[in-house]
């Protein structure tokens, strides 16, 4: 007998982490333009086309970054006043801002403009099938974004310092279900020279 709940589409959020201070870049990299959009806008648009809601977590130079963003109807920005304490605080702020009915969140970096809508959709589609706790893209040369089901969020909220969800995933690799993508990992933009690669 089929479980009726399994056929119901899940309510899924996305958290875009864009609060960093861009120390290595030397300027507010969230405002840098790649292929006609700011770095953060690429992640926002990729997620907004697929999930029910997108939470953009801002911190360093938050007002300027928010002003530079075009926020679709299902996207809202939240400010993380503790962003200087590390990525864990931004991830926590994003998850805390998700809708109460959200069953999972895709976590995206605001400085990885090569992540596309189809990458996000692969995570969402896989989750709606069997609802695993953790899904992650595996590109040819390394890991990519992850989707975290709500039961995992409490573990993420307990993290401290400049670490993200990867700390939990690396601690228990067996819980991760991988989705293979036959492409190279889209590069992060950490330094000015990375803009040309992106």
Structure write-up:
By secondary structure, the chain is α/β, with parallel strands linked by helices. The protein has a single domain (11-197), classed as Spore Coat Polysaccharide Biosynthesis Protein SpsA, Chain A. Helices cover 33% and strands 24% of the residues. It has helices at residues 4-7, 39-48, 62-68, 87-96, 117-130, 150-157, 166-171, 192-197, and strands at residues 12-18, 33-34, 37-38, 53-58, 75-79, 104-109, 134-139, 142-149, 176-180. The strands form two sheets. A seven-stranded mixed beta sheet has the order 5-4-1-6-8-7-9, with helices on both faces. A two-stranded antiparallel sheet has the order 2-3. Strand 2 (33-34) and strand 3 form a beta hairpin. Helix 2 (39-48) runs parallel beside helix 5. The longest helix is centred in the middle third of the chain and has 14 residues, at 117-130. It is globular and about 40 Å long.
């Amino acid at each position: 007998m089929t479980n009726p709940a399994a056929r119901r589409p899940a309510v899924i959020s996305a958290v875009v982490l864009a609060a960093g201070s861009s120390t290595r870049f030397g300027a507010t990299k969230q405002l840098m333009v790649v292929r006609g959009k700011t770095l953060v806008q690429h992640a926002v648009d990729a997620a907004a086309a697929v999930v029910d809601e997108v939470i953009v977590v801002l911190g360093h130079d938050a007002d300027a970054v928010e002003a530079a963003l075009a926020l679709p109807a299902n996207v809202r920005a939240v400010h993380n006043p503790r962003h200087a304490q590390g990525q864990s605080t931004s991830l926590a702020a994003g998850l805390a801002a998700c809708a109460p009915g959200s069953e999972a969140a895709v976590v995206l970096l605001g400085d990885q403009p090569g992540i596309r809508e189809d990458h996000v959709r692969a995570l969402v589609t896989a989750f709606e099938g069997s609802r695993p706790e953790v899904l992650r893209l595996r590109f040819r040369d390394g890991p990519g974004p992850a989707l975290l089901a709500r039961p995992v969020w409490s573990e993420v909220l307990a993290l401290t310092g400049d670490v993200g969800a990867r700390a939990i995933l690396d601690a228990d690799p067996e819980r991760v279900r991988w989705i293979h993508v036959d492409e190279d990992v889209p590069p992060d933009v950490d330094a000015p020279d990375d803009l040309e690669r992106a």
